[in-house]
Amino acid sequence: YVRPMVCLGCAKPARELCPACQSSLRPPRTRFVAGVVADAAFAHEGTAARLVHNLKYRRSIPAGGLLARSMERHLHPAASALVPLPRAAGRTLTYGIDPALSLARHLGARTGLPVVNALNGPLWWRRRAGRSRRDRTGVGFRLRVDPEGHVVLVDDVLTTGETAASAIRAFGRSDISILTATSAGTM
Fold first, then answer.
1. Which stretch of DSSP H or E encloses residue 168?
2. Where does 14-172 show beta strands of DSSP type E?
3. How confident is the model at residue 88 (pLDDT cuts 50, 70, 90)?
4. Which of 18, 92, 121, 157 could form a disulfide with 14 if both were Cys (CB 3.0 to 4.6 A apart)?
């Protein structure tokens, strides 16, 4: 990993993050999804939201690395496998990246935990960003493989929790935690 010569938040000359962007990162509130603790590295605002946006829509691997490094300190101590929540296949093709998979791979490289593609989702589902809570529905994930031990569901952003709740339902067990780069709003 080569550190960029510009700030990943604002593109000013800096190594990774400039002091202004670094100081704008805020911790999120603790949230629960379907009775499961959902930890995140940052509140989904300002610099943190830009980092997620750059990862999702601009394929910024360095932004993903920075976010994963920050997520690592929130990793459940009993974690035995990292399971990324898959992006709709059409969006992965369109943008050239699955942000949750990228984050999970960065985390796996840092921690030695295996990344397990345990979930299948539909090829496409309606875009959820900007929609109200009542207009969001579960994704309908299907379990491909069930890793042993404590599973950590990895995603880029937690908004209403519907995507994570769909994954929890697919697993149908309780030794699961959720870890995201950012968390938007409250539940």
1. helix 162-171
2. 31-33, 36-43, 79-84, 119-120, 142-143, 150-158
3. confident
4. 18
Q: Which residues contact 10 (CB under 8 A, 6 or more apart)?
A: 18, 20, 21, 47, 50
The answer, yes or no, to whether residue 119 has pLDDT greater than 90, is: yes
What is the token pair recorded at 17?
A: 């993050």
- Give the pLDDT confidence score for residue 122 in this predicted structure: 74
The model carries a pTM of 0.89
94 token code pair? 């369109």
CA 158/CA 28 separation, integer angstroms: 11
- Biggest CA–CA distance in the chain, Å, is 47
Assess contact for 186 and 155: CB atoms under 8 A.
no
Are the CB atoms for 41 and 110 separated by under 8 Å? no
**Residue with the two structure tokens 């999702």:** 56
SS3 156: strand
3-state helix, strand, coil split of the chain in percent (to 5) is 35, 20, 45
